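Batch manifest, entry 17 of 40.
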Amino acid sequence: MRAYRAGPVALAMFAALSAGCGGGSVPAAREAALPASPPASPTVSARPLAGKIVVLDPGHNGGNAAHPEEINRQVDIITGRKACNTTGTETDDGFPEHAFTWDVAGQLKPILEGMGAKVVLTRPDDKGVGPCVTERAAIGNEARADAVLSIHGDGAAPSGHGFHVIMPGLLPGHNDDVVKPSARLGRAVRDAYREGTGMPYANYTAKNGLQTRTDLGGLNLSKRPAVFIECGNMRNEGDAAKMSDAAFRKRMAAALADGIRRFLG
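Output type: structure tokens
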């Protein structure tokens, strides 16, 4: 409670009240009326990602299948040479991975922007070709991203279900500085995604939803903290039903935003 300092008028009134009551103390009712300091409340930032840069990489692209000569072109990913890009997978009902990833990224972007982040996409629409995995990594590097998230849907055997997050393995002399922060990003995304969607860890690959690989160009070539997420197995009936549902994709996007906030906030 703050100290109370009365002015001249208040002092006069106080004296009169004291004389009338025959005592020198403030009555209980008057004492309760003295002004009190409001309780301190913690400051919570409405924009926890202000000043942060996030690159979202929606896997594949809608025009890839029509340009095999371009996407099959071999590129250097440090540990070998691989195709520039691929067409991705699809559900048994024909919902393609490129459309899935584009929609999730499109819903994730405004959530992150609402938290104050600057968001960069590796492709502007779902009608183009590529870009190559090397170019996707370069976009994150050039943007000086604080976090890079590559969004995918897996095409494993139909019996497999669940999601997993892929983190970069150490390539000495190439990605030494980003392996540890990428691992932290991977754990944050994994935990938030599981909590937010209720989906289980993949039962056919990875361990506890986490995997380290050195055969993915987007991770090998990244100089910024980066992870891939396989949001589910599109060849599995149960996962496919969730991934094909617009409301559930919105839930996925919210969970991924939470994971990035945990890492950067």
